[in-house]
Amino acid sequence: MVEYLLDQLMELFNVDLSYFAERVPVIDDIANIFVAVGWALLIGNLAYQAMRS
Question: pTM to 2 decimals?
Answer without folding.
Answer: 0.58
